[in-house]
Amino acid sequence: MVVIKTQNLTKNFGDVVAVDDVSLEIEEGECFGLLGPNGAGKTSLIRMITAVSPSTNGEIWVLDSDLQSHSRQVKAVLGVVPQVDNLDPDLTVLQNLLTFARYFDIPKVEAHRRSMEVLRLFQLEDRCKSRIRELSGGMRRRLLVARGLINSPRVMVLDEPTIGLDPQAKYLVWHKLTELKSQGVTQLLCTQNMEEASALCDRVAIMHQGRIMSLDAPAKLISRYVGEVVWEIELNSEERDKTINGLESHGLDFEVVGDKIHIFHVKDDELTSGVLDWRKAMRRAATLEDVFFRLTGRSLAE
Ligand SMILES: Nc1ncnc2c1ncn2[C@@H]1O[C@H](COP(=O)(O)OP(=O)(O)OP(=O)(O)O)[C@@H](O)[C@H]1O
Ligand SMILES: [Mg+2]
After folding, report:
1. Is 62 in the pocket of ligand 1 (CB under 6 A)?
2. Ligand 1 binding pocket mutation candidate from 9, 11, 13, 162 (most atoms within 8 A of CB)
3. pLDDT digits (tens, 9 = 90+) for 61-85
4. Model confidence band, residue 271 (pLDDT cutoffs 50, 70, 90)
5. Closest ligand, as measured to the CA of 47
């Protein structure tokens, strides 16, 4: 069953096309990753899907409801973790959760029980009486994730949930998201952390300049764009030109990255072909980050 569907979705801000004709389908129970450089349009896409910001063009369905005419029902089943912290700094941790629970018409006693439960999950229960301004950045982020669970959502939409978290807290969030997935909760996860996307996502879409450049399972993207391994070699300027010529004449797939050359899709028999001194090269496993660079380039977008 398709849980989130967008068709020809577009968002303009004046002359800026933040999201450009995006059509995608997210299946029930999957963790769907959204990757892309700063300004790619990820948050703009997420804000439309979560009915926070209107689309310029196109359509969105969540659990078969058309978002435009059923935004209230859709919001009730969504757990949203926004990129920008919108906690109320003057209220305590618990008051923030209780206030949030009211949007979902959760009765008071139940809201209190749920609040303490989600605080426990993210090891924040002893901070329940702290004001938001007294929390560290990482605690706030954990609280934002906890808050997204208050309505026991069927679908979670998370915009960079682990940014700024220490490794312990990051693993705690990963563990919780994995657990939710095993309970059938569908997830749309926007992240800049390639390890996170590889670890958690069944499929990822790589976005660039408002468009989806590619969409597939992480392992499939890696094998399509990079191959299973990457060879890296650092060369001085004389060796470099000769090596580049050699690589080109052998039709090898490579990229010059600063002082290094990255070589992709290498088959073992090419190692002895005399293109370069392979003993000087380092062999490593290909990652989603390699795919990311290949699809979106290495220069800053803005
Ligand atoms: N409220 C707004 N008003 C005007 N332009 C906006 C607004 N929000 C986003 N934009 C523009 O839309 C484009 C996409 O921004 P968006 O925040 O969706 O990117 P992103 O992929 O989430 O980036 P990041 O990784 O930095 O969070 C950018 O060019 C941005 O400047
Ligand atoms: Mg963003």
Report:
1. no
2. 13
3. 999 899 999 999 999 999 999 999 9
4. confident
5. 1
Kindly tell me if the per-residue pLDDT of 302 is higher than 60: no
Across the beta sheet with 155-159, the strand order is 78-81, 155-159, 186-190, 31-35, 203-208, 211-216
**What are the residue ranges of CATH 3.30.70 in the chain?**
229-285
Rounded mean pLDDT, 87-99: 97
Confidence of residue 255 (pLDDT cuts 50, 70, 90): very high
40 lines ligand 1 (CB under 6 A): yes
What is the CATH class of 2-218?
alpha beta
CA 21–ligand 1 middle distance (angstroms): 16
When pLDDT is cut at 50, 70 and 90, the band that residue 301 belongs to is low
Whole-structure pTM value: 0.94
How far, CA to CA in Å, does 10 sit from each of 46, 48, 67?
Answer: 12, 9, 15
Report CA(218)–ligand 1 centroid distance (Å): 25
Helical pair 137-147 and 93-102, crossing angle rounded to 10 deg: 30
Given ligand 1 and candidates 11, 43, 81, 196, which is best to mutate, with the most ligand atoms within 8 Å of its CB? 43
Q: Could you tell me if the CB of 41 is within 6 A of ligand 1?
A: yes
Fold of the 229-285 domain: Alpha-Beta Plaits (3.30.70)
Which residues of the chain form CATH 3.40.50.300?
Answer: 2-218
Which residue matches tokens 């560290």? 136
Question: Which atom number of ligand 1 is nearest to the Cα of residue 160?
Answer: 27
Helical residues (DSSP H) of the chain, grouped into ranges:
42-49, 71-77, 93-102, 108-121, 137-147, 167-182, 194-200, 218-225, 237-249, 288-296
pLDDT, one tens digit per residue, over 191-245 is 999 999 999 999 999 999 999 999 999 999 999 999 999 999 998 888 888 889 8
